[in-house]
Amino acid sequence: MNSDELPTQISDAIEEILLDSADVAKLAELVEENPISEPEIETLTQKIADLNQQEQSLKADIASLQTVRSQLQEQTLNAQTSLGRLVQDSLGDLEYRRQTLQIAIEQLERRQERIRNEMRTTFAGTSQDIAIRVQSFKDYLVGSLQDLALAAEQLEFEKPQPPERTVVSIVEDKPQKPSTPRFAEQSFQEQTKKIRNLIDQFRNQPDYYGSVWQLRRTFEPIHAERVSNWFFTQGGRGAVRTTGSRLQNILVSSAVISILYQIYGDRLRTLILANSPERLGEWRRGLQDCLGVSRSDFGSDRGLTLFETPEPLAMKADRLVKDGLLPLIVIDETEEMISLAMLQFPMWLAFAPNPQQMPQQNYYY
Fold first, then answer.
1. CA 227, 123, 307 angle in degrees (round to 5)?
2. Which of 68, 135, 320, 345, by CA, is between 20 and 30 Å from 83?
3. Over residues 74-86, mean pLDDT
């Protein structure tokens, strides 16, 4: 065997069996069969040392890669855990909000159904009781004024004085002017027909973008019943039962105002009585919404005037009558007492609270 080929064979053999400890004996046999010179041994020893160093370096790299891999796995696991927790928390929050909204919707639906049932049935059951109370007060008032007039006639005066206008108007029950509204009388058939047509128009053909002073909101049968009763049963003077909501009461009042404005035009003056600025603010906003009026339509010389107390309202209504205008007095349901000074005028609309939720109505001079 050529001596030049020997180192190559040994090198190849060493590379082949370097990582295999079982082949060490084979390497020893090859060395005995083929004597190697000292320089070659040093070369081989250096190669073996280099290979060992490479092995250590590779093992270190592998260990480092395994460490990095473990860290990545741990970070991935932590990220998955955090993401899962976040998703779970979000789903729980959404589920809670869904349940809360569902409960709120169910409560509102039950409340809506309860209000509808109350509006359909309760008023029909207690309207007769309210009518009896109003009629009883009317009989008491007329009887008292008749007694007062009779007592006044029996008194001796040096100069006969004409009776006060308010007493004459109530005792004789006659309008002071031919234009005083008497909606329930047979002689006003044309006016009655126009009022009924307007009520039907509000019910069946609502105009949400109509002109100013025209009703712009949905008009339900319960509202139409109250308006018709006020016009044709009470003759434009009386109390109707509250709907339980000030906004609904404003809607009923707006329908009455709109109808009267169609009949009397600018002669109509509406006077609102409520005992607090907050409630008057609700009336202002509600009338603006229902009739399309603006803030300029409110004022002492305008179509709508707001009052907190009855005395200045009665004085204002008296001046309007003297000026040939037609006042409409609207009384909020929170008014527990109605001044008799307001009952002398041709038109007034009062909202009576539920008799089961309030003491008996009081009246004062």
1. 50
2. 68
3. 90
- Scan for tokens 């041709």, then name that residue: 346
Structure tokens at 17: 């069996």
DSSP-H helix ranges across the chain: 5-17, 24-33, 38-117, 123-154, 165-172, 189-204, 221-228, 246-264, 277-291, 310-322
The model's pTM is 0.49
pLDDT band with cut points at 50, 70 and 90 for residue 290: very high
| Residue whose C-alpha is closest to residue 272's, from 263, 264, 293, 262 | 293
Rg (CA), the chain: 50
pLDDT > 70: percent of the chain? 68
**Taking Cα atoms as reference points, which of 280, 273, 261, 268 lies closest to residue 324?**
268
Shortest CA distance to 228 belongs to which of 202, 247, 261? 202
Residue indicated by tokens 């204002």 = 316
Residue 165: is its pLDDT beyond 50? no
On whether the CB atoms of residues 269 and 330 are closer than 8 A, the answer is no
Distance CA 89, CA 104 (A): 22
Architecture of domain 175-364: 3-Layer(aba) Sandwich (3.40)
Average pLDDT over residues 69-81: 90
Helices 277-291 + 246-264 axis angle, to 10: 50
Cα separations in angstroms, 216 against 10, 255, 285, 325 = 109, 9, 14, 25
Residue 329: which of 349, 302, 312 has the closest Cα? 349
* Per-residue pLDDT reduced to its tens digit, 100-128: 898 989 889 888 888 877 776 655 445 55
329 closest CA partner among 354, 304, 353: 304
Going by pLDDT thresholds of 50, 70 and 90, the confidence category of residue 44 is confident
Rounded to whole angstroms, the Cα distance separating 239 from 129 reads: 12
Among the ranges given (142-146, 204-208, 251-255, 271-275), the one the predictor scored with the smallest mean pLDDT: 142-146
